[in-house]
Amino acid sequence: MGQPQSMLIPHERKPQPGDHIYSTRAGGLYAHHGIYVGNDMVIHLQAPPKGSGSSTPCQKCGYKRDCQGGIIKTCLDCFLDGRSSLEFYEYGSSIFEFNIKKRGSCTIFHTKPADEVVKTANDLLQGNGSKFKDYNFFANNCEDFAVYCKTGMAVSMQAVGGVEAASNIFGTGSLFGMGVNLGAVGVYSLAKVIHDANTAK
Ligand SMILES: [Zn+2]
């Protein structure tokens, strides 16, 4: 008998293919993001495995928790990893909404059509001629990966200089939501600041 974990999660809104979903972890300190691609499956960027690879594979999707990292496709249960929080990242938010909402929950950028989002996620999963298959490009940032699938825009604080640099500039020290949620203008100007700082060294 498989474990009917999904039945225990009180999702009111069902994810649809192309949705950017996330689940908060460590008491909301950070979140894991992914693209729902249908059939209860999610494509997401997972941190490199820490374990020795001795974990047993998921009966549903075959994911081995301690053996696989990078861009992976797992069932929703493996994506949630035992957490009940399933939230939806909002696209096309107004500046006003963007400023009052929790960082890492929305962006003013607009999403591509759902089928294109799913295609991009699958292309990245398969590494079809894309430099973005490189795990390091996203610098371990699952939010950047999901936003890229949704928008085609790779605007990453990590990719342009590191989250510490961004934190220093803003003086927040907060990891949560750092990324595209600074707003379009903020991202580009900050990216330039970091770029200039790095090239000046
Ligand atoms: Zn699974």
UniProtKB/TrEMBL annotation:
PROSITE patterns, alphabetized: LRAT
UniProt region (Disordered), positions on chain: 1-22
InterPro entries: LRAT_dom
Residue ranges annotated for the LRAT domain, each copy included: 22-158
PANTHER family the UniProt entry points to: LRAT DOMAIN-CONTAINING PROTEIN (PTHR46137:SF1), OS05G0310600 PROTEIN (PTHR46137)
Name under which the protein is recorded: NC domain-containing-related-like protein
Native source organism of the sequence: Theobroma cacao
